[in-house]
Amino acid sequence: MRLLLMSDTHLPKRAKALPAPLLAELPRADVVFHAGDWVDAATLDLLESHSRRLVGVYGNNDGPQLRARLPEVAYADLGGLRFAVVHETGTAQGREARCAARFPDTDVLVFGHSHIPWDTTAPTGLRLLNPGSPTDRRRQPHCTYMTASVDDGTLTDVELHRLPLR
């Protein structure tokens, strides 16, 4: 099962559209994750119409229209793994312990907010993934997104994709 992970798209404030390389991944993905800060409902509509399955949450920059359509936290059981998606996890210091306590029955946590790619594993085994942002790199060298696979109850092939500078 192929996964596509993104967050913090901030359309149309940070970019006019999602980058072409990211859009090209949609037909290849069995499940698309978006960890919040869509900003416009058109991006949600686009991903809903072009994804086999979409798992998304709202972020702190998402208004009432998106909050009416998306949860604050989403859960999905995929291929023997338990996923959770949330926008904010707090500061980097202590993140693994804090998230392991908040999501004790989760194998993989997808989150956003910082625009900083993150891939760590808590002592409990919880894998934490932040795909960064495909449209707003902030202080990062590149805009980014992630892909991964679920194979027989194992998360494999986690890859951070750097997008060309615009």
UniProtKB/TrEMBL annotation:
<dbReference type="GO" id="GO:0046872">
    <property type="term" value="F:metal ion binding"/>
</dbReference>
<comment type="similarity">
    <text>Belongs to the metallophosphoesterase superfamily. YfcE family.</text>
</comment>
<protein>
    <recommendedName>
        <fullName>Phosphoesterase</fullName>
        <ecNumber>3.1.4.-</ecNumber>
    </recommendedName>
</protein>
<dbReference type="InterPro" id="IPR024654">
    <property type="entry name" value="Calcineurin-like_PHP_lpxH"/>
</dbReference>
<dbReference type="InterPro" id="IPR029052">
    <property type="entry name" value="Metallo-depent_PP-like"/>
</dbReference>
<keyword id="KW-0479">Metal-binding</keyword>
<dbReference type="Pfam" id="PF12850">
    <property type="entry name" value="Metallophos_2"/>
</dbReference>
<dbReference type="GO" id="GO:0016787">
    <property type="term" value="F:hydrolase activity"/>
</dbReference>
<dbReference type="InterPro" id="IPR000979">
    <property type="entry name" value="Phosphodiesterase_MJ0936/Vps29"/>
</dbReference>
